[in-house]
Amino acid sequence: MPHLRRVPLALCLSVTFASGCAAAGRGATPAPSAEVPPEIALPAGEQRVLRLDARGTQDYACRPNPAALGEFKWVLTAPEAELLDGSGTSVGRHYAGPTWESSADGSKVVATVKARVAAPQADAVPWLLLTATETSSEGLLANVKSVQRTDTRGGQAPSAGCADGDTLKVPYSAVYWFSR
After folding, report:
1. N or C: which terminus of the chain has fewer CB atoms within 10 Å of its end residue's CB?
2. What is residue 161's predicted lDDT score, i.e. its pLDDT?
3. How confident is the model at residue 30 (pLDDT cuts 50, 70, 90)?
4. Backbone angles phi, psi at 13, to 5 degrees
5. Global confidence as pTM
6. Does residue 17 contact residue 153 with C-beta atoms inside 8 Å?
7. How far apart are CA 86 and CA 112, in angstroms?
8. Distance between CA atoms of 30 and 157, rounded to whole angstroms?
């Protein structure tokens, strides 16, 4: 099968996503739409304090596959997503790091993946537990200890081959839970 130089727009648009914006900060924090697997449960003593929905893309580049000489594979380079509060208002962005940043006060969290589990939907990026490595001391994202990514839709790179240098933006949505 010949490698594609350009990924057709239809492929990018064929990955559909939906975001269910639930009220953040109004009463009890809503639970994810599916039960959170124990592998990505919050550490003891931490509680969810904020839910932000994300809509954007998972960005990939075609790179050499170290496991198969002469072959290439899609490699995640960064997410690019808008963060929305419970009313659907944009409150920040999610980008490489991974980093979440508030547009209102500049507070941010940088984290590293601690655990992952496959998403219930085959075309969705995994659900994650991330540990904060850097966090602001004031603002919306102050003093965050962990971040959970749940309720993912879309975002997986296609299994089809690629050619070195190709790039791809795959639409996705997710819910990010911030804990203290």
Report:
1. N
2. 82
3. low
4. -80, -15
5. 0.81
6. yes
7. 25
8. 29
Confidence class for position 28, pLDDT limits 50, 70, 90:
very low
Whether residue 48 contacts residue 25, with contact meaning beta carbons closer than 8 Å, is answered with no
Give the per-residue SS3 of the chain: CCCCCCCCHHHHHHCCCCCCCCCCCCCCCCCCCCCCCHHHCCCCCCCEEEEEEEEEEEEEEEEECCCCCCCEEEEEEEEEEEEECCCCCEEEEEECCCEEEECCCCCEEEEEEEEEECCCCCCECCEEEEEEEEECCCCCCCCCCEEEEEEEEEECCCCCCCCCCCEEEEEEEEEEEEEC
- Between the two ends of the chain, the Cα-to-Cα distance in Å is 50
**Residue for token digits 């996503």?**
17
Cα–Cα dist 150/128, whole Å: 7
Q: Answer whether residue 25 shows pLDDT above 80.
A: no
Amino acid at 135: T
Q: In the numeric block, which tokens belong to residue 58?
A: 């998972």
Structure tokens at 125: 């990026």
Distance CA 26, CA 36 (A): 21
Count CA atoms within 13 Å of residue 27 on its CB side: 4
